[in-house]
Automatic annotation (TrEMBL):
This is Beta-glucanase. The lineage of its organism: Bacteria, Pseudomonadati, Planctomycetota, Planctomycetia, Pirellulales. It comes from the Bacteria. Residues 1-31 form the signal peptide. Residues 35-288 form the GH16 domain. Keywords: Glycosidase, Hydrolase, Signal.
Length: 297
């Protein structure tokens, strides 16, 4: 997984359809040519520009724990997120800021890009997570925050650094995918699958993917499926609306949450900790819909 594969930034057209190209990202400008775009990249973020594209990416700024007791203050500062050598870098740092002992960044495309069905894949090098660093590549329903969590639906494509992995000495290998939603009786329901990778994931880039159809959500590491759920049940209605992707590096959590490390002195991971994202690409299915700035294209 050492080589870097790039999509050329060019204009692409098919009959009755245009594709808009802006810096490192290109976007499907219409959904009317679905069959011809099946299994082809219809949107991508290549991170090849000089600066993060604020027309696509927005930041959640704050240090309130984000529902998990996280210890970092997430900022929109260039110290915590920037482009370097063709990759996005999200950097968690041990520094006092806003009343917190750490800083990091939490970035998303809500309002800029969302999609319904398709294969969303990212090439990511996770940081050394031991112990207390919690990187994630995930999605929320595009109706958030107007519709509260978990009724908006959540799909986690990559999480690593969990407390069970710490207990087993698998901090660098054990990942999970997950669905969180309002299930039967509108009660929070969580479905989680764990997978022990054959190598330490922080040493190189790897491919993390969700394949989302009207019937299933399937999750992959380097092309190997490690989680799958049928989403045809009425209780899974959250997963038939557009979602937007999120990238973040959290630090710590409540004892009952992901890392189980709830105070700064319990965080033993080497800092700064950097997650590198080479690219994110959406490949189309016959049912794929792409939304740019809230409008279907």
């Amino acid at each position: 997984m050492n080589s870097r594969h790039r999509q050329p930034a060019v204009f692409r057209f098919c009959v009755g359809i245009g594709v808009f190209v802006a810096s490192s990202a290109f976007f499907l400008a219409s959904a009317s040519c679905q069959e011809s775009t099946a299994n082809k990249v219809v949107w991508s973020e290549e991170f090849d520009g000089q600066a993060i594209d604020r027309n696509v990416w927005t930041y959640d700024v704050g240090g309130h724990g984000f529902g998990n007791g996280q210890l970092e203050f997430n900022t929109d500062r260039p110290e915590n997120s920037y482009l370097r050598d063709g990759s996005l870098v999200i950097e968690a740092r041990r520094e006092a800021y806003g009343g917190n002992a750490f800083t990091s960044a939490r970035m998303h495309t809500r309002g800029g890009f969302a999609f319904l069905y398709g294969d969303l894949e990212a090439r990511i090098k996770v940081p050394d997570t031991a112990d207390g660093i919690w990187p994630a590549f995930w999605m929320l329903g595009n109706n958030f925050p107007g519709t509260e969590w978990p009724k908006c639906g959540e799909a986690d494509i990559l999480e690593i650094g969990g407390k069970d992995a710490i207990a087993k000495g698998l901090q660098h290998r054990q990942i999970n995918c997950a669905l969180h939603f309002a299930g039967v009786g509108e009660q929070k329901t969580s479905l989680v699958e764990w997978y022990d990778a054959p190598q330490d994931l922080h040493l190189d880039y790897h491919l993390y993917k969700i394949s989302w159809t009207p019937t299933h959500m399937k999750f992959f590491l380097d092309g190997k499926e490690f989680g799958s759920w049928d989403i045809t049940s009425p209780e899974m209605k959250e997963y038939h609306q557009p979602f937007f992707p999120i990238l973040n590096v959290a630090v710590g959590s409540w004892p009952h949450s992901y890392t189980g490390l709830d105070t700064p002195e319990k965080i033993s991971a080497a800092l700064p900790a950097r997650m590198h994202v080479d690219w994110i690409r959406l490949s189309g299915h016959p049912n794929t819909k792409v939304y740019l700035r809230g409008q279907q294209r």
